[in-house]
Task: structure prediction
Amino acid sequence: MHRVLVISDDWDQKKTLKSGLLEHGFTPVPFGSSQALAETFAPERIEVVVVDLERLAIDGGRLCASLRRERMLKDLPVVLLVPESQLGRLDLGWGFEDYLTLPVSSQRLAQRLAFLIWKLHRVESKNGFAVGGLHLDFERYEVRVHGQPVDLTYKEFELLKFLATHRGKVFTREVLLDKVWGYDYFGGTRTVDVHIRRLRAKIELGGATYIETIRHVGYKFFGPPAE
Result:
């Protein structure tokens, strides 16, 4: 299930949309426009934000601006649900990725959300990659999380690079040891666990998940949602 933050002041009136999103693999997390956003979502993994402008108590542009100031939300795609009567008020300067005109079917909304989440998690691996708030530059050996530089050792960087460029594929500790450290390395597989733990501490900030542990097997890089 993908978690979707839905900011709406009449979500209770959109039960069909809510049930439809659940059927299509999305878990709506409803939120009123008058609620305080700061740090509310640290325990939860939100992947996309939907703002329902119908009967919204505050100005849509002001709300979008406040989303961009929130550390946990500023890098997430924002989709606006707009009544046709309000289309003329939209401003691209608000910083949203897309909008849909109300009324909208849950299937159409789910398709749009799935595409935006795929874009968020896609990996670009020519000279580096960007996935969520994580950016890796292969040529400069630089890593940034939400725009902030992260200091990695050479092996931490190589381990992250290898996992990320093989996203979704599970590797045993033995294979990672061979591919990253080399076949002539005489250390034990615990070396991999130590480096994975350090990597997570440095890049998985604010509840983000990039590296998954596959119990009794090994590790994999968190891949994009299945199409």
Remarks:
- The chain has two domains: 2-121, 128-221.
- Residues 128-221 form a domain with the Arc Repressor Mutant, subunit A fold (CATH 1.10.10.10).
- Residues 100 and 109 are 8 Å apart (CA to CA).
